[in-house]
Amino acid sequence: MSTMASLTMNHSDISRTATNSVTGEGYGAGIYMANGDLKMSQSTISSAHARSSSNMAWGGALFVYAGTASITGSNLTNVSVYALRESRSFPPSYSSPC
């Protein structure tokens, strides 16, 4: 039997967070959700940075694996992903549906 975690955020603020990996991958500096459901409403994730100096990094603001995310009326600002092999910032050339 497996259990799913859930996280509900309402009117919350996550700021100035970072993941830093020297030997592996950096994931979800603001929120890391594995095997669960995220519901985020009227919240902000800002200044969140996922970094890896040796491999890859994913999800500067949030990383959801094997779960779902429902984000409404929220802001993701000044978030980035940096890895030795590649670097990305949000938002890229498309707009977030948030």
What does this structure look like?
This protein has 98 residues and is an all-beta fold. The protein has strands at residues 5-10, 13-21, 26-27, 31-34, 36-41, 44-52, 57-58, 62-65, 68-72, 75-77, 79-83, 87-90. Strands 2, 6, 10, 11 and 12 form a five-stranded mixed sheet that branches. The chain has a three-stranded parallel sheet with strand order 1-5-9, with no helix packed on it.
Which labels suit this protein?
disordered C terminus, globular, 0% helix, five-stranded mixed β-sheet, three-stranded parallel β-sheet, mainly beta, 98 residues
Q: What does the secondary structure layout of this molecule look like, with pairings?
A:
Elements: E1 5-10, E2 13-21, E3 26-27, E4 31-34, E5 36-41, E6 44-52, E7 57-58, E8 62-65, E9 68-72, E10 75-77, E11 79-83, E12 87-90
Parallel strand pairs: 1-5, 2-6, 3-7, 4-8, 5-9, 6-10, 6-11
Antiparallel strand pairs: 11-12
